[in-house]
Amino acid sequence: MNMIENNLKVSIKAALKEAYGLEVEDNFIVIEIPKDQALGDYSTNVAMRLAKQLHNNPQVIAQEIITKLMESDNDLDGAEVAGHGFINFRIKKSKIASVINDVLKAGDEYGHNDSGKKLPILVEYVSANPTGDLHLGHARGAAWGDAITRLLNASGYNCLREFYVNDAGVQITKLGESLLARYLQLFGIEAKLPEDGYHGQDVADIAQIVKAEQGDKWVKVDDEDARLQWFRKEGIRLELEKMKKDLDYFRVHFDSWISEQGLYDSGEVEKAIQKVIDMNLTYEEDGALWFKTTEFGDDKDRVLRKNDGNYTYLTPDIANHIDKIKRGYTKLVNLWGADHHGYIARMKAALTALGYPKDTLEVDIIQMVRLVEDGKEVKMSKRTGNAITIRELCDDIGVDAARYFFVARAVDTHLDFDLGLAKKKSNDNPVYYAQYAHARMCSIIRQAPELKHLDVYDMLTHEKEVALLKQINEFPDMVADAALTRMPNKVCNYVQKLAQQFHSFYNACKVLDPQQPELSNQRLALLEATKITLKNALDLVGISAPEKM
């Protein structure tokens, strides 16, 4: 809620208390922005909501509220009863323009708010297996997860960004075997790749690194098991190193990297199993250990330990989530691929069974991405013939365009990523449109005389100026809402609206007019506030704000 709306609520509460001796909660009073701005700047239906309680006509109640408000609220320019009891408010233009000083004072932190009240929240995203390059699905999850964490941090949450490394299990053994085979092949040895191993170029590339660093050290050995274990670990290390470089290039950074193997080595997996057993939540059948998850909302019970003694994927995942909670995070958010949709119920059931609140874990599913160019799907890289990686995409269209297009649409919908549009240097391309608006503002400011800061901006009364000011006013509310709902696409929507409002203002109002220096100064201040707001909005989704284009 912006300052104007908050003050309006306070004034309405005071008016109700004075007129009727009635005290209401803040959330009882709903302030909205009329679709038709000619009706006013804000409106409320509070009189209609109180009609039954006060045994009075809502129009009479509305008029009484207006009378009290006009006596006490200096920000109001006027108010009228509309329809069956709506109240439409007109705010003084100078009050709307006061947001300029708020923005100039806050600078890079304009839009930041404390709505999160330092709630500890851990967001896990990407978490790709360290067995190959990051591809488009990972890219969408990376951009979305990073934008969520930026929003949460800007809204006063205590947010940790975490990557869970799946470095245990059969797939890692296959990686080690594949890397070893590729390494031996470099020495002319006919080593066969595992049939279900990793046959791609990325493993061949890291085999070259191993050869360069190790020479022929691992060609002839006495202990082949020890050699395979070394190649497992080295494969993980090199794949993670490459992954971190690609994520860094994509402007995605993590505070914490948690190893699945580390959970085994530290005994956390065994502790989790024992906890479930001690709580009488398991039973044995056909030699396997089963978790009674159906008692907690799952569609069937789940195996924790198979009859061969090995654990299922669920077991270390339970240990991982217990570990997150033990570290003090009361809200857990996971971003999972569409193929994990069926996994949500069992994970939530497991945590509920262990006594944690039902809303402890929330999962956002990242739907599929389809690259499209000239109306046709692009499935493979023209350069390598393999699936397109994050780095290849960014090299082709740029990091800004890639991130923006991934975040602009909600992740619960399939995304057709238009490569042709992303490459366009025109207003048809939404990220170009927004960045061009910022560059144009910077250009105007560079040509302008030094800005004189004022206490009151009372000359900004043109409808395009007022519309732009209102858009700036909405920014902190939008940030808080996008953080709460974990919907960074709302930021992209806001960016487009703000850029559009700027262009409308720029086309209608001459910013630098030597004949009107005072008006020019106020418009220049509005421009500076708009520039700051746009830059801050772009930063929330990891997009740069160039000063020249």
UniProtKB/TrEMBL annotation:
Q: Where is the Arginyl tRNA synthetase N-terminal domain?
A: 6-91
User: What are the UniProt keywords, alphabetically?
Assistant: Aminoacyl-tRNA synthetase, ATP-binding, Cytoplasm, Ligase, Nucleotide-binding, Protein biosynthesis
InterPro entries xrefs: aa-tRNA-synth_I_CS, Arg-tRNA-ligase, Arg-tRNA-synth_N, Arg-tRNA-synth_N_sf, ArgRS_core, DALR_anticod-bd, Rossmann-like_a/b/a_fold, tRNAsynth_Ia_anticodon-bd
Q: What is a single cellular component term in the Gene Ontology annotation?
A: cytoplasm
Q: What reaction is this protein's catalytic activity?
A: tRNA(Arg) + L-arginine + ATP = L-arginyl-tRNA(Arg) + AMP + diphosphate
- Position of sequence motif 'HIGH' region: 128-138
What Enzyme Commission number does this protein have? 6.1.1.19
Is the keyword Protein biosynthesis assigned to this protein? Answer: yes
A biological process term (GO) from this entry: arginyl-tRNA aminoacylation
DALR anticodon binding domain location is 434-549
Gene3D superfamilies, per the entry:
Arginyl tRNA synthetase N-terminal domain, HUPs, Isoleucyl-tRNA Synthetase, Domain 1
What is the protein's quaternary organization? Monomer.
Family annotation (HAMAP family): Arg_tRNA_synth
What family does the Swiss-Prot or TrEMBL record give for this protein?
Answer: Belongs to the class-I aminoacyl-tRNA synthetase family.
Q: What is this protein called?
A: Arginine--tRNA ligase
Q: What species does this protein belong to?
A: Copranaerobaculum intestinale
The gene for this chain is argS
